[in-house]
Amino acid sequence: xxxxxxxxxxxxxxxxxxxxxxxxxxxxxxxxxxxxxxxxxxxxxxxxxxxxxxxxxxxxxxxxxxxxxxxxxxxxxxxxxxxxxxxxxxxxxxxxxxxxxxx
Length: 103
What we know:
mainly alpha; globular
């Protein structure tokens, strides 16, 4: 019997993760579009940086989004808020039994 491949954060699971993170952030009083949460998850994988330290990911994504002209409203979409998204992602990955490096 072979070992199944590790689960990855993609497709419906990625969408579920983004929705869950957005709900958690709303409960904490953060006001941002749910699409920004999903954008963080997709972009960190697109850039291949999802296995790095959270502060590093947040800084790189802030730069990437600035270069793409993506901002937040009413608050800027900067590393500190991106870091909060990444922390909630860590929790979701843990609940789903997915290692960040494999995600």
